[in-house]
Amino acid sequence: MFVQLVQGKVSDAERMHAQLDKWMQDLAPGATGWLGSTCGVTEDGTCVCFVRFDTPEHAQENSNRAEQGAWWAETSRLFPQGAEFLDSERVTEDTPGDPAKAQFVQVIEGRATDAARGLELTMENSDKWAEYRPDILGSVGANFTDGRYAMEMFFTNEADARKGEQKEPPPELKAQMDEMQALAAEPPKFFDLKKPWMYSPR
Fold first, then answer.
1. Which of these, 191, 201, 202, lies nearest to 10 by C-alpha position?
2. What are 56-110's pLDDT values in tens digits?
3. Which domain of life does this protein belong to (predicted)?
4. What value does the mean pLDDT take over residues 116-130?
5. CATH class label, 2-88
6. Is 118 in contact with 180 (CB distance < 8 Å)?
């Protein structure tokens, strides 16, 4: 899988949503290898989009389309300070449930001293995590350059997610969490998408 993370402050969340709907209607049918996108705007106006393709080549083909260029020229006006693009082929996916049913999505971004080990850790004990946190429907993680990483977490809803955060993990999972925290080169940032916009090929 190939992931492109696009983010930045937007001037109008509703117009951004309309632009994404427009992409889904007009451009998605011709986007070879596109697997889906998760987007949303946080309460402070930050737009975050996790865009998934099967290969970087297909993602590049999509970027090269004239209609994609025209769509982005219009959409980019909604990012007064510009948008940041991060690409990765180092991707993991875990889907104990159906992410399409998520009513709350949290994107976690940070920098790790050993990003490869961090990505490995996210895939360990997946069966135990599913039992401990049934509110988590799935996750997609990606490593970028300079130790940067991002992960999108799909939850049944925000209330369940907040309750899950308060639960005491069993020893094996706590050790896993402690090792992940020890890898942090800087405190992670959390982007709460309380009204996620989920797109997938029809």
1. 191
2. 999 999 999 999 999 999 999 999 999 999 999 999 999 999 999 999 999 999 9
3. Bacteria
4. 90
5. alpha beta
6. yes
Euclidean distance between CA atoms 10 and 80, whole angstroms: 7
Tokens of 79: 């990012």
CA distance 38 to 24: 12
CA distances from 57 to 27, 72, 89, 92 (A): 17, 19, 11, 19
Give the integer Cα–Cα distance in Å for 75 and 81: 13
Residue range(s) in the chain whose domain bears CATH number 3.30.70.100: 2-88, 90-193
The stretch 153-164 carries a mean pLDDT of 97
pTM score > 0.85 for this model?
yes
- Is residue 73 classed exposed, middle or buried when 0-12, 13-18 and 19+ CB atoms within 10 A define those classes? exposed
CA distances for 18 relative to 71, 90, 145, angstroms: 12, 30, 31
